[in-house]
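I would like you to sit down with the record closing this message with an eye to the fold:
=====
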Amino acid sequence: MADVASVDRAPAKVNLTLVVRRRRPDGYHDLESLVVFARSGDELRFTPGGEGYRLVVRGRTAAAAGPDSDNLVLRAARTLAETAPVPGGTFTLVKRLPVAAGLGGGSSDAAAALRLLARAGGLSLGDERVMAAARATGSDVPVCLDPRPRFMRGTGHDLGAPLSLPRLPALLVNPGVAVSTPAVFRALGLAAGTERDGDPATALEASPAPKRAGLLSLIAASRNDLEAPAVALAPEVATALAALRADPGCRFARMSGSGATVFGLFDTCRAAASAGKAIAAVHPGWWVKPTMLG
């Protein structure tokens, strides 16, 4: 087992599409979502030593991350330790992503913890105990465990094969409001048994290497079914979308996940950065981050 500190990235998860197919009898919803990951994200360090697990949270958004004792990092670590020979130790989380933002920050942090523990314990990511811990920790943790573009379906545990997609220069914008995922689903108001059309973007699974124009066309033809209910709960989401769409370099804009973060797609990193400067100047309290998606 490794006995020195190791570090891993916890990249932001962005839902380019999010189609709610049906509401299940158990109250959960079956989804289809094209997920990609940003170069931007949190950072997690693990230092083995001692029994059990401890967590230190630092960084710009640490105060909003909630009590350390309830963090998904610790939940994931303790769950894996119940079934696999992994060492105890201390996690240090540098929190950079906004919280409750539709970017899967907590889930990505938990997935990073599982990767670090697997490495320290000599386990592969393909070990069923690692994936079982991911599933038990949260619906978005499995897709974050191996952060590559793919479709996630059902309640998040049904993962498609990794996709080879062109990189997308992007701008992430959060208007400084937290949106409750359960509240957004309640506002969606989907009746049990209702069946909705599938995601047109699933055509990407039959195209091993789509061109950028084709990818953008399929994304635009799809939707995020949670965007309208999120806007109803937090009108600031609509304001952020309008700010992106008003920029001449923005090719497409949509909300990610259940919000409140929105993303804009651009032709170049320079265009995304320029839009970010302009938006931040008008809305200095917003979280604005140029990045690359893929």
User: Anything to note?
Assistant: Residues 252 and 265 are 5 Å apart (CA to CA).
